[in-house]
Amino acid sequence: MVSLKGAIYNKWSVLLIAACLCGGPLFSKAQTLNEKFEQLMFSRDKGQLNKSVYAGHSHNDYWQAQPLYTAYYASMESIEADVFLRNGKLMVAHDAKEIKNERTLNALYLEPLVALYRKNGHTAFADSTKHLQLLIDIKEDYKRLLPILVKEVGQYGDIFNPIKNPNAIKVIVTGGRPSPEGFKNYPKWLFFDGEVNWTYDAVSLAQTGLISADLKDYTDWNGKGLPENIPEIKKAVDKADSLGLRFRFYGTHDSPNAWQQLINLGVYWINTDQPKSLELFLDQRARSSFQLDKPQEVYKPSFQHDAKDRQVKRILLLVGDGMGLAAVKAATLANGGSLNMTQIKTVGLSQTEALNADNTDSAAGGFCHCYGAEG
């Protein structure tokens, strides 16, 4: 036995769910509903789901149990190491107190990368279509440190020189670094991490490897649901796109939802401290999601009789068997972000459940959508 009476038991949860989904009160315009669905799409560019428009960045990589190798074999195409200068050597550590004599940039990263490069037949990965970049985060006076970095990297010749070698591993300086007008003071094969608000000329742009920003400067998002301030986030990503550069947020949360939302927003370099988990997520993403190549056309109501005092000709009542919000969202995503039902100007939600059972069956869990037809 089932009953609609059970619906009143959770009316506040219904209101909360509706408000979260529709972005406002229980009754919301269809356009607002569609915008929310669109933000949850699997890809920023419809029909581009199977194209790689993202890659992993191993943040604070030196904290891994196996620096470099954990990220490398998890297919991270960007790896980051923090560097200090001590006694003429580049030491890898997050803080000065963590410096250990054996943890040099050369021992932990440069020499192993050169060995892997040669083993792969002069490419960064066995898959020659993939490329690798090494971010060097300078933790102190870059004017003293950069000449040492240039000397240490330069000893390996064209392996780290993309200007002469298209298969080279790109070295990008982040953290302490000059402003764009100072890039030209260093070899052209040495690249720099850019910032959203910097101004670039042709010379400095040629030595800019990517653009990075702290996500916390845009939102206090905890990685769940959707981030706030999406227009400003997209504006930052669009700035990088307009310059032909790839974008990275640091200070991000490590979770599948956070990674997915960053991809949706067009972020290319997905920042992580969990490279193995990110590898699994990216590997399964295409197989665990679905979207029609050619979405079905939806009916576009004219609302020509909206708010007019006239007799209603007919009422259409649609009840989907067990069709809750998750089913509606999934169908909307699969159809390119729009359904006939999401074109309705006013949307109302209700919750039903079984009166005498803990597990609601399909009939009691039906989703009811009611509207007046145009006449």
Number of strands: 11
* Average predicted local confidence, pLDDT: 83
- End-to-end Cα distance, whole Å, is 38 Å
Q: Using only CA atoms, what is the Rg? A: 26 Å
Main sheet specs:
9 strands, mixed
- Unreliable runs: 1-31, 41-50, 369-375
Number of helices: 10
Task: Describe what you observe in this structure.
With 375 residues, this protein is of the alpha/beta class. The longest helix is centred in the N-terminal third of the chain and has 15 residues, at 105-119. It has helices at residues 11-22, 30-39, 69-72, 105-119, 142-154, 202-206, 230-242, 256-264, 275-285, 325-334, and strands at 55-58, 78-86, 89-92, 133-138, 170-175, 190-194, 208-214, 247-250, 269-272, 315-320, 367-372. The chain is 27% helix and 16% strand. The chain contains ten helices and eleven strands. The strands form two sheets. Strands 1, 2, 3, 4, 5, 6, 7, 8 and 9 form a nine-stranded mixed beta sheet that branches. The protein has a two-stranded antiparallel ribbon with strand order 10-11. The model is unreliable at 1-31, 41-50 and 369-375 (pLDDT under 50). The two termini are 38 Å apart.
Features:
375 residues, alpha/beta, nine-stranded mixed β-sheet, two-stranded antiparallel ribbon, 10 helices, 27% helix
How do the helices and strands line up, and which of them pair or pack?
Layout: H1 11-22, H2 30-39, E1 55-58, H3 69-72, E2 78-86, E3 89-92, H4 105-119, E4 133-138, H5 142-154, E5 170-175, E6 190-194, H6 202-206, E7 208-214, H7 230-242, E8 247-250, H8 256-264, E9 269-272, H9 275-285, E10 315-320, H10 325-334, E11 367-372
Parallel strand pairs: 1-2, 1-9, 2-4, 4-5, 5-6, 6-7, 7-8
Antiparallel strand pairs: 2-3, 10-11
